[in-house]
Amino acid sequence: MEWICVPLLLFSGIHLGFTQFNGFNCDPNYHSRFPGERDISVYCGVQTITLKINLCPVLYSGYTDADLALNGRHGDVQCRGFINNNTFPTAVLFSISLSTLESCGNTLEVSTSQSINAYGNTSMVQIGNISGYIDTPDPPTVISYLPGLVYKFSCSYPLEYLLNNSQLASSSAAISVKDNNGTFLSTLSLVLYNDSTFSQLISIPTSGLSLKTRVFAAVKATNLDRRWNVLMDHCYTTPSGNPNDGIRYDLFFGCYKDPQTTVFENGKSQMGRFAFEVFRFVKHKNQKMSTVFLHCITKLCRVDDCAILIPICGKRRRRDTADEHVVSGSSSGDAVITAGPIITRSDESPTNNSQLSGSSQHLNALTSALISGVVVLGVTCLGLFILSLRLLRKPNPSSLTGVWNPSFR
């Protein structure tokens, strides 16, 4: 096995120094060794898992890129990697689609446990773990002088997220974040609509929505493998875009549901849908408009397991009043989007509250006076009518004449 050194080349004034071995970018000073853990990189995406293996130690061990395959599937071309020779060192890339990850022998295990999340609530949470390995084939002999190479990998996806964002473009909020290793958060969005068909995005006028206006909200998953469903665990509102605001109002959580909130679909597809009536926060009593921000803690559940995560509700469960107002800080794994602000009007006309109050008092006083006058007039007329009847029926003594009848005794 011979290493060939290529002299330093000059292109357009830029010095490019590299060493090649059999046409691959390898440096014998760094790669004349057997593979180690640092030779594999794992990128856990929302649609694919990408594995990157340093090819140089593989070549040093006596193998080629064609000898590497997922989970021992060496006879299946789709389970092999492809070479990227535009990097240093040369790498072999494997791309695993989450929608067909089992086709090359990778495994998905979903564990379910009851735990307390970052917001102090106890709930059932699932964690999805995808794992597998890349290896070299065993020789058809009794012994071998070549080492057997095995690269193990795994991606762990926590399946509970807080949807929140401090900014709202137009009428809805959608997540736009950099993919982190092992999170499906970038596939989720929280959108507001103004109709029950969930087809027309809500348009909030500058003057705000009228109180008790019905708003329809949906938590949707986009470009997510169909093995997962969306399960809204807890949706609540705050007067600011901060999900940890000390003032909040719960729309639903577990078996608790606000009377003006209706949940249409949850845990049965890749969309959760509900509706609620807009209100104002009392802290905004001195303002003409009130702002309401919507937050949802959302889980992704495997389709077959969603039923065990949905709470079984009989009698409405009472909640500790302290839970209505206290939210602990979010954990480092939580990324946030918010739908909002939803702006509501405190009054229904340009007239301010003091004018409405004065007009109301004036109308009430006038109405009371009119009613009192009608009652007094009615009583007076009734009295005069009764008196006139009595005067008409009473006989006049001076007009009575006649002869005494002695037989009448």
From TrEMBL:
InterPro entries assigned: ZP-C, ZP-C_dom, ZP-N, ZP_dom
Keywords on record: Disulfide bond, Membrane, Signal, Transmembrane, Transmembrane helix
Highest taxon above the source species: Eukaryota
Residue intervals of the ZP domain: 43-320
Signal peptide (UniProt feature, chain positions): 1-19
Gene3D superfamilies xrefs: Zona pellucida, ZP-C domain, Zona pellucida, ZP-N domain
Pfam families linked: Zona_pellucida, ZP-N
Transmembrane segments: 365-387
PROSITE patterns listed in its UniProt record: ZP_2
Record-given protein name: Zona pellucida like domain containing 1
Organism this protein belongs to: Sinocyclocheilus grahami (Dianchi golden-line fish)
